[in-house]
Design goal:
alpha+beta, 10-stranded mixed beta sheet, 6-stranded antiparallel beta sheet, 9 helices, 16 strands
Length: 311
């Protein structure tokens, strides 16, 4: 049975390993009740259940769907939205209350995890911005696959580091501790891959440490990317000659000056063609996609999702 047009569907995604989740949800409830929001909510048990619950909210006719979660949960949500017709998708607005290990896309719009009431106040005003989605098209087990992303695709070392940092923060509960734990684990990882890439008219065929293709800020690696210009920013990072330069690059990443490092080569394009990456790991919006040998293609679809932004 169809729900009221003004009733929100809320998909709550608890953080793994964080005991304060119940208190977190109670704060969200208080903020919603204060603004007299009518809503129904469902809670995910695991990352696998997010897409199932998102489909359920869409199929039940909710026109405003709020994800209380991080980048990975948002990624699942937009991939479900892209499964429905454009006409149906145009009637749905997607919003976020940040509650993830990584909240990079939410932070881009200045939604802060610590300011739940402010976030709800903005969402209630229902200001919509159509945003772009990047997409990666690849083959898995002989089948053509396509996965959308709001933030970025990482190929190589950073895909490993981001996954380690995500897991470490789930255990440690601290972004800073997780970052330093990831640095320590880097010592046990391969630092470069033979990659063959085509970006605009440039062909890159050499050893590369990591590549970030961002429709959004890319966890600091594509800081100038915006999710509404029909383009992706690309940062290709060659392995520094000295170890100290590697740690200098990490410091610039943390402080928002990543593009200043001499080993970083930035591009802006409508498409990135990956011919081969020596089966480097690929991460998408903070979650590992796996090892892809290539060829595969990364593009952008312009203004395809209605996203609620601050008013």
């Amino acid at each position: 049975m169809a729900v009221e047009q003004t009733r929100w569907g809320i998909l709550y995604c608890p953080k793994k390993g964080i005991r304060a989740d119940r208190k977190r949800w109670e704060k969200v409830q208080r903020a919603l009740d204060l603004r007299k929001v009518q809503y129904d909510f469902v809670q995910s048990e695991s990352s696998d259940s997010v897409e199932r619950l998102m489909r359920m909210l869409i199929n039940n006719g909710y026109k405003t769907i709020i994800v209380v979660g991080g980048d990975s949960a948002l990624n699942d949500a937009v991939n479900c939205l892209m499964e429905v017709s454009r006409e149906e998708r145009e009637q749905i607005a997607l919003g976020v209350i940040p509650n993830g290990v990584l909240n990079d896309f939410a932070r881009y719009w200045e939604f802060k995890e610590s300011e739940i009431q402010q976030t709800v106040d903005w969402l209630v005003k229902h200001r919509i911005r159509k945003v772009d989605l990047g997409s990666i098209q690849y083959k898995a087990e002989g089948k053509e696959m396509k996965r959308y992303f709001l933030n970025c695709v990482n190929i190589g070392l950073i895909a490993d580091v981001m996954n380690q940092r995500r897991q470490a923060r789930s255990l440690l509960g601290s972004r800073t501790l997780a970052f330093f734990a990831s640095i320590v684990m880097m010592a046990f990882h391969r630092l470069d891959y033979k990659m063959h890439l085509k970006i605009n008219s440039d062909v890159i065929n050499r050893q590369v440490m990591t590549v970030c293709v961002g429709s959004g800020p890319g966890y600091g690696q594509t800081p100038n990317a915006v999710p509404y210009n029909g383009l992706v920013d690309v940062s290709v990072v060659y392995q520094p000659q000295k170890v100290v330069q590697l740690f200098a690059g990490l410091w610039l990443l943390v402080t928002g000056r990543f593009l200043n490092h001499r080993s970083v080569h930035p591009y802006r394009s409508r498409e990135v063609r990956v011919v081969d990456t020596s089966k480097a790991r690929v991460g998408i919006d903070g979650r590992l996609l796996g090892k892809l040998d290539g060829p595969y293609r990364i593009t952008v679809e312009q203004e395809v999702v209605n996203f609620l932004i601050p008013a």
